[in-house]
Amino acid sequence: MRVISFTANLWGLLLCVACISVNRPAESGGPIQLSSLEVPAGFQIDLYAEGVANARAMCWGAQGTLFVGSRSAGKVYALRDEDGDQQAEVRHVIAEGLDQPLGVAFHQGTLFISDLDKIFRLADIESRLTDPPSLELVTDDLPADRWHGGKYLGVGPDEKLYVAVGAPCNICERDYEEYMHIRRMNLDGSGGEVYAKGIRNSVGFSWHPTTGELWFTDNGRDFLGDDLPPDELNRVEEAGQHFGYPYCHAGVHPDPKFGTKYPCADFQAPVQALHPHGAALGLSFYQGNMFPAAYKQRVFIAEHGSWNRSEPIGYQVSQVTLEGGQAISYEPFVRGWLADGKAWGRPVDVLEAPDGSLLISDDQAGVIYRVWYKGSL
Predict the structure, then answer these.
(1) Which of 68, 149, 156, 284 is the most buried (most CB within 10 A)?
(2) Does the reported pTM lie above 0.85?
(3) What is the rounded CA–CA span in Å between residue 291 and residue 143?
């Protein structure tokens, strides 16, 4: 595993600043400082949608609808770009009054939505955006603990529904059948099983476009200082693998409370160690043709930003370049949400659009950004 440092001079050569300035109030009360966001040369970042309070996980419907979950807002949105101008001018609230509905996943016409301790579905939702049906319960067999209680969702290539269940604590031992895992189940909620365990808090996962393996981010524990432990980018090579929590962090850091029980060699090491306390959340493998060829199958990761570090870190979208399934570089792709130690926005999820651009949700500013390549290929 090789970690590439953030080199200011090199970054300065690669970056350009988005040329469009927007100075309208964000949902959080501060201005949306689009002009401060830095992207690599040849790229541009624009607003895809505004007024999406507490925007979290995203997924596409089959008919071009962007579905967006939230957390504190308790809502699920359906966004439409009806006129083809790469901005979603139509916004529907298709569910509300929920408890942390941050997870959304779409499969064969049905939208799956997470709640704190439940998963719901909305069948044939794209034909009923203005008159959504009532929520149907898929399962209520999920923990209701509020600590790391939000549930990220996805439908895998095996057509099973996957859900991340976090630890109900900063650092603790619990039954892996109930907590600290990613589980999968049939689309009707039956046949639930733990797929991967030893995971503190994953709020983002996806499947490798070639191998079909599940890759996920995991947030490291708090209160070991500014630089320990790193967040993680992990790969599940087979069902049942253990990724170390609470005994070992990032494959090499024994926990001071629980680390004497098992050696780190017993657990799966991450593909890439990420910023410590950077709060790595959503991830996406780039598969489109809009970006230069070097970006193909690169991993984009939304780093929500630290909350208890003496010097804030994260608040950016990072990129991990892979070669033979291994990480060979880790560097910024979009940054600028943090200025003078204060954040005006916080990226949460990344999702490739049908045209090959990249969408980024921001739960603090309440917007969705679109990053596109305007240079020559």
Answers:
(1) 68
(2) yes
(3) 41
